[in-house]
Amino acid sequence: METKITRQSRAGSLESNDLVVMIEPDNGLNIEIKSVVDDLFHDQIEASVKKYLNELGVKDARVLIEDRGALDFTIKARIETAVRRAR
User: Smallest Cα–Cα separation from 61: which of 46, 73, 50, 76?
Assistant: First the structure.
């Protein structure tokens, strides 16, 4: 089932061990990640973001991630919240 992103939304905070997810309509899937642990974990963060967007059926969106060292379950929760708000 495909989920259409119809408006801009945001979830999360810039507190330590959290992240902000901003999502908006776009053609294709465009992901931008800024992280305090980017040198070590960029690929894992990107893989998690793509996995959860795929699980939610999001194929067309611009996703901006500003990470402050969030764990995987936090990434999942923030993406899900942002997607639900953007439908």
Answer: 50
Beta strand 61-67 with 29-35 is parallel
Q: Which pLDDT belongs to residue 43?
A: 97
Chain position carrying tokens 């800024």: 34
Handedness of CA 66, 68, 72, 74 (dihedral sign): negative
Q: Are 29 and 63 in contact (CB under 8 A)?
A: yes
Structure token pair of residue 67 = 């990470």
Model confidence over 17-57: pLDDT tens digits? 999 999 999 999 999 999 999 999 999 999 999 999 999 99
Residue that is written with structure tokens 């642990």 in the block: 37
Give pLDDT, residue 14. 96
Residues 22, 9: contact at Cβ < 8 Å? yes
